[in-house]
Amino acid sequence: MIHVILPQHLRTLARVGSEVTLEVEGPVTQRSVLNALEARYPMLCGTIRDQVTQQRRPFLRFFACEQDLSHEPPDAPLPDSVVSGAEPLIVLGAIAGG
């Protein structure tokens, strides 16, 4: 099972607690986790990544195992500790401003 921690605004939209648990088929990548997340919570479609280009939204970041995975290729394997369920994949809302 893959654990995903969502930012508050997405938790509210999906009506979930801070962490969701997903079953992911095949290789565990950012793309496969986001596909499983959007399949289970269709109201999140288009909120984490663009529906057409599938690119990450600008003000969202992905972290796991104290590493920023935001600029990793979407089909790169996630760390083993995320795959085993020991560590969560964290979707973090970035803050901008002056």
Give descriptors for this structure.
globular, alpha+beta, 3 helices, Ubiquitin-like (UB roll), 98 residues
Give structural notes.
22% of the residues lie in helices and 20% in strands. The chain has 98 residues and is of the alpha+beta class. The chain has one domain: Beta-grasp domain (Ubiquitin-like (UB roll), Roll). Strands 2-1-5-3-4 form a five-stranded mixed β-sheet, covered by helices on one side. A hairpin with a 2-residue loop joins β3 and β4 (67-68). The longest helix has 11 residues, at 30-40.
Q: What's the quick description here?
A:
This protein is α+β, with helices and mostly antiparallel strands and 98 residues long. 22% of the residues lie in helices and 20% in strands.
Tally of helical segments? 3
The CATH topology comes to Ubiquitin-like (UB roll)
Q: Can you summarize the main beta sheet?
A: 5 strands, mixed
Along the chain, the helix and strand elements come as: EHEHEEHE
CATH architecture: Roll
Task: Please give the structural blueprint.
Blueprint (H helix, E strand, L loop, with lengths): L1 E4 L2 H7 L4 E4 L7 H11 L19 E5 L2 E2 L11 H4 L5 E5 L5
Parallel strand pairs: 1-5
Antiparallel strand pairs: 1-2, 3-4, 3-5
